[in-house]
Write a structure and sequence with these properties.
By secondary structure, this protein is of the alpha/beta class. The chain contains 33 helices and 26 strands. Strands 3-2-1-4-5-6-7-13 form an eight-stranded mixed sheet, with helices on both faces. Strand 25 (about 750-755), helix 31 (about 760) and strand 26 (about 770) form a beta-alpha-beta unit. Helix 9 (about 250-265) packs across helix 14 and helix 20 packs parallel to helix 24 (about 580-590). The chain is elongated and about 100 Å long.
Length: about 850
C-alpha cells in the first residue's frame, strides 16, 4: 500500500514501535549512503541480479582489467550468495583482484552509491538511484525473441524495474539497429524519454566464442573429462520454461528426453553431447545422475560453451542470436510450441527462425544428423538473421565498448543519442487505477488524445495485491507509456515521509510535505524517471499531496492539476463520523500556488472551485477541460449481452457511482420506491460499491424494495447494464462532470438528474432531465419516465471529444496548427 493509503487508513496502519523504528533506521541509512563521495576510479559489476559472474559484464571486466591504460581502476562484483561462487571468484581474480559485496547488504548499497562506473546486464534493485557523476552502462543480455516489456499483453507491469534502470543509464548496448528498434524503442518505449546513448556495436559476451581453442581450454578447466577429448560437440541450450524453481523434476524429464533424441543422431566415437541449462534450473539439476557427464557447470559462460559447439540445439532461447556469428548450424527443438505461445509469446514466427524447427524427438534426431554431415551450409534465412541481429559480433566488440564508455569516445561509434520523434512530452499521474470515475476519465483521455502529437507517460503506484488495479492499468491505451513507482522512497525522502505519518508524534500532513527539502523529492524523481524530461506535467488525480508534490520537481513548460469535483465540499464530506479526505485535500490546496493551471472538468465547476478555493491560487489559474469519451469502446461494450436477464416488459433504471454520501443514494432509493409503488414491472440496478453499502441495503429492505432494487456492486462492464436499461438516474448533491452521464448519452440513453452546482455543464448542449434535489421531484420525474420514455438529449459522439481535446490543447498552450519541429537530438552516430 502506498503512503496515500496509509494516511487514509489512520489507526489501521499502526505497527509495533520496533517495526516502525526499524523502517525509519533503514531509510535513514539509505539517506546517509546517498551522501557518500563518488569514487570515479571504482567500477561495480553485476550480472543477472548477482546470480553469476558472467555475460557481458564479465567479458568487459576481463578486457578492462587487463588493459594497462585502466590500471588505476578498482573493481567490485555484486553476488547474491558469494559463498556459492568461491571457485568462480578465485578463477576471475586470476585476471585481476576485486572486492565482492553481498547484493542487498549495507556494503552493497554503499558500493552502488559510491562507484564511479556501474555495469549491469539486467537491473539494479528497486531502491537504486543513479547519482549525478556516476556513469551507468547497461549491457542487457541478448536480442529478445520472447516478447518483453510493454509488448507482454496483460502484464505491462512486469518490466517496471527494467525500464526504470534503462532510463537511469548513460549507455545501453545493442547488437544492431534491429535490436535497438525491437527492444529499446519498441518493447520499452524509450523514444523521447531516454537521454543517454544507445551503442550499437555488438554484444561483448560474444567475443568469448570466437577463439575455439581458448573456449575449449576454459571448458576443460571446469570439465576435466573433456581434456584430450577431440570429439565434436553438440550443445543443447534451452531456455527456462517457467516451471517451479523448487520442483525441477518436470523440467529435468523434458531435458533428459531431448538429450536422448540428440544422442540418437550422433556417433559417440566422434561426437559428444553437452547440456548448458538455463541458470534458473542449472543448480537444481546439478546433482542428478542423468546429467553428470553432460551438464556444463554454471561457472562456464554460455558463450564459452558456444565457442566449442559444432551444432547448437535450442528452443525459444535467444542464445541462438549469439551463435549466428559462428556460422555453424542451429536447430530449434520446440515440442511445446503451441503451449509456450500461450505462456510467453514470441516476436518472430517459427518459420522465420534461422535454424530448422523440430517438434518431435524423431524430427530432432534427423535434424542433428543432417547438420553433422559434411557439406552443411547456412540457409538464406540464417544469413538474413545474421545480418539483421549480429552483424558486429566479430570478436572485437569489448574493446570498442570500453573505448566508448571508459575512454570517453562514444561519439566515434555507432548508435543513437537520446532518440526522439519530436512529439510533445506529457507526464501524468492518473491515480491508483482503482475502479472509479477518475480512472475512467483518465483512460478515456488516454484513448482519445492525439498520440501523433503527444508522447504520454503515466506514473502508476504499483500494487502486487490488487487485481482490480492491475486490470485497470493493463486496460490503458497501449500507445501510452506506464512507469510504475515501487520500492522504498529514495534517500532522505523515505525517512522524512515515515516521520510525517508517525502516529505517535504526527506532523500535520499538509505541512509535512512542504517541510521536506527539495533535494529529497528530486532524488525520488530521479529514481523513478532517470534523466527523462517532460514538457508538461499533469496531476490528473488531484487528490494526493504526495504525488502533487513529487510532480513539482521537473522543469517543464506547464504544471497542471485536475479538479474532478467541488473539492471544498469533498474535503468537508463526512462518512461514518469521519472526514476521510480533509487532511489530504488541504495538503493539495496548499500546493495549488505552484501549478500553472487548476483544471476543473466543466466550466461551471471551474466557477465553483474558483469561488470556494479563492485563497489557494489566483483566480486566473482556474480553468477547465471537459472529460472526453471513447465512444467506439463504450458502444462496443454496450452491445454485449444483457447481464441482468430480466423478462420482457420490465422497465429498467440504472444508477452508477460510488456508494458514498455525496452521491445521495438514500434520496435515489426513496424516490424510486415512491415512483414505483404501483408499478411492479419497474426495477432499479445500482452499480458500484463503497462505505454505505450495508446502510443502503438496510434501507432497501425497510422500504420493502428487496425485489425491486438491487445493489450490484462493482461490475466489469457497466456499459452493458446502461445500454439495456431505459434510463439512468443521478441523485448527487455535488459532482464535477460525471463520466456516467457522458457514457449514458453516448449509448443514447436518457438521464434524469437532481440539480447540483455544475449540472448545467455536466450535460453537453444542455440536454438531460434536471429536477430539484428532493425525493418528490426525483420521484415524479422517474414516474413520468416509467410511463413514457423521455427523449434522449442531443449528443454528437464525434463532435464532443474533439471539442474536449481542443480545450486541452489551449490549456497546455499547444495549438495543433503550430506543431513543434522534430528534435535535433535524434541523430545517428557513425554509420
Amino acid at each position: 500500500m502506498g503512503l496515500g493509503g496509509k494516511l487514509k487508513q489512520g489507526s489501521k496502519t499502526v505497527r509495533s514501535a520496533g517495526s516502525r523504528a526499524k523502517r525509519v533506521v533503514l531509510r535513514a541509512a539509505r539517506a546517509r549512503i546517498q551522501d557518500v563521495p563518488i569514487d570515479r576510479d571504482v567500477v561495480l559489476f553485476e550480472s543477472y541480479g548477482g546470480n553469476t559472474l558472467g555475460c557481458s559484464p564479465e567479458q568487459i571486466f576481463r578486457v578492462l582489467a587487463a588493459d594497462v591504460r585502466y590500471s588505476h581502476l578498482k573493481f567490485v562484483w555484486s553476488l547474491q550468495e558469494p559463498e556459492q561462487h568461491t571457485a568462480a571468484v578465485a578463477a576471475l581474480r586470476e585476471v585481476r583482484d576485486f572486492d565482492v559485496v553481498r547484493r542487498g547488504s549495507a556494503e552493497y548499497l554503499r558500493a552502488v552509491a559510491s562507484a564511479g562506473y556501474l555495469v549491469n546486464n539486467m537491473s539494479f534493485p528497486q531502491d537504486f538511484t543513479k547519482r549525478p557523476g556516476q556513469v551507468y552502462l547497461n549491457t542487457w543480455h541478448g536480442v529478445p525473441l520472447k516478447r518483453m516489456g510493454y509488448d507482454v499483453v496483460g502484464h505491462v507491469e512486469d518490466g517496471r524495474n527494467i525500464v526504470r534502470n534503462f532510463l537511469a543509464a548513460d549507455y545501453l548496448l545493442s547488437s544492431s539497429r534491429a535490436m535497438t528498434e525491437r527492444m529499446y524503442l519498441g518493447a520499452f518505449k524509450l523514444t523521447n524519454v531516454f537521454e543517454g546513448r544507445i551503442l550499437e556495436e555488438g554484444s561483448p559476451r560474444t567475443d568469448r566464442q570466437v577463439d575455439r581453442a581458448v573456449a575449449r581450454a576454459e571448458m576443460e578447466r571446469w570439465m576435466p573429462q573433456l581434456a584430450g577429448d577431440s570429439r565434436r560437440v553438440v550443445l543443447y541450450a534451452p531456455t527456462w520454461r517457467g516451471a517451479d524453481y523448487a520442483k525441477p523434476e518436470a523440467e529435468a524429464a523434458s531435458l533428459a528426453a531431448a538429450l536422448e533424441a540428440i544422442k540418437a543422431a550422433v556417433d559417440p566415437g566422434t561426437t559428444r553431447v553437452l547440456l548448458k541449462a538455463h541458470q534458473v534450473i542449472a543448480t537444481q539439476i546439478a546433482g542428478m545422475e542423468e546429467f553428470a557427464d553432460v551438464l556444463v557447470p554454471s561457472e562456464v559462460q554460455a558463450n564459452t560453451a558456444l565457442g566449442v559447439a559444432e551444432v547448437l540445439v535450442t528452443d525459444y532461447s535467444s542464445i541462438f542470436y549469439d551463435f549466428l556469428a559462428t556460422g555453424r548450424p542451429v536447430i530449434h527443438y520446440a515440442p511445446d510450441l503451441q503451449e509456450y505461445a500461450q505462456y510467453r509469446d514470441v516476436y518472430d514466427a517459427p518459420e522465420t527462425w534461422p535454424g530448422e524447427v523440430t517438434v518431435t524427438p524423431a524430427e530432432l534426431t534427423d535434424a542433428v544428423a543432417s547438420a553433422l554431415r559434411p557439406g552443411w551450409a547456412p540457409s538464406e534465412r540464417y544469413l538474413e538473421a545474421l545480418a539483421r541481429w549480429a552483424p558486429l559480433d566479430d570478436g572485437a566488440v569489448t574493446p570498442r565498448v570500453i573505448d566508448a564508455v571508459f575512454g570517453g569516445r562514444s561519439a566515434s561509434y555507432r548508435g543513437l543519442n537520446a532518440p526522439s520523434d519530436g512529439r510533445t512530452k506529457i507526464l501524468m499521474y492518473a491515480g491508483a487505477f482503482i475502479p472509479n470515475g477518475i480512472t475512467t476519465s483518465a483512460k478515456n483521455l488516454l484513448r482519445t488524445i492525439d498520440h501523433g502529437r503527444y508522447d504520454v507517460t503515466v506514473l502508476v503506484p504499483y500494487s502486487a495485491k490488487d487485481p482490480a488495479r492491475r486490470e485497470g492499468w493493463n486496460g490503458v491505451d497501449p500507445r501510452t507509456r506506464l512507469l510504475f513507482r515501487a520500492g522504498p522512497f529514495a534517500g532522505g525522502l523515505g525517512a522524512a515521509l515515515w516521520r510525517a505519518v508517525d502516529l505517535h508524534t504526527p506532523l500535520p500532513v499538509p505541512h509535512a510535505f512542504e517541510d521536506i527539502e527539495d533535494q529529497a523529492w528530486e532524488t525520488e524523481f530521479r529514481r523513478l524517471f532517470g534523466a527523462a524530461r517532460f514538457h508538461h506535467v499533469i496531476d490528473f488525480s488531484g487528490y494526493s499531496p504526495l504525488w502533487g508534490r513529487l510532480l513539482r520537481v521537473p522543469l517543464t513548460r506547464t504544471r497542471s492539476v485536475w479538479m474532478h469535483n467541488d473539492l471544498f465540499s469533498d474535503a468537508q464530506r463526512t462518512v461514518n463520523g469521519r472526514q476521510p479526505l480533509k487532511r489530504g485535500l488541504e495538503g493539495v490546496f496548499r500546493q495549488y500556488k505552484y501549478f500553472d493551471s487548476l483544471v476543473s472538468v466543466s466550466e461551471q465547476l471551474a466557477d465553483i472551485n474558483r469561488e470556494h478555493l479563492a485563497a489557494a491560487a489566483p483566480a486566473a489559474r482556474f480553468t477547465w477541460v471537459p472529460n472526453t469519451v471513447d465512444a467506439e469502446r463504450i458502444v462496443r461494450l454496450g452491445a454485449e449481452p444483457d447481464p441482468a436477464g430480466y423478462p420482457a416488459g420490465v422497465r429498467r433504471f440504472v444508477a452508477v457511482g460510488r456508494l458514498s454520501p455525496e452521491k445521495n443514494h438514500r434520496r435515489l432509493i426513496r424516490a424510486f420506491a415512491e415512483a414505483a409503488a404501483e408499478s411492479p414491472e419497474a426495477r432499479l440496478d445500482i452499480l458500484g460499491d463503497g462505505p454505505l453499502r450495508s446502510e443502503l441495503g438496510e434501507l432497501i429492505t425497510d422500504l420493502g424494495m428487496g425485489e425491486r432494487i438491487t445493489l450490484r456492486g462493482h461490475v466489469s462492464n457497466p456499459h452493458a447494464w446502461v445500454a439495456h436499461s431505459d434510463a439512468m438516474l443521478v441523485s448527487s448533491d455535488y459532482e464535477g462532470q460525471p463520466m456516467v452521464i457522458l457514457e449514458a448519452l453516448t449509448l443514447g440513453k436518457p438521464v434524469i438528474s437532481t440539480r447540483f452546482g455544475s449540472v448545467n455543464s455536466a450535460f453537453p448542449e444542455g440536454g438531460g432531465v434536471v429536477v430539484d434535489a428532493t425525493v418528490s421531484a426525483l420521484a415524479e420525474a422517474t414516474a413520468a419516465a416509467r410511463v413514457r420514455r423521455p427523449g434522449a438529449p442531443p449528443f454528437d459522439v464525434n463532435k464532443y471529444p474533439a471539442g474536449a481535446l481542443r480545450r486541452l490543447d489551449e490549456v497546455l498552450g499547444e495549438a495543433p496548427e503550430a506543431p513543434r519541429a522534430a528534435s535535433a537530438n535524434d541523430k545517428e552516430g557513425r554509420a
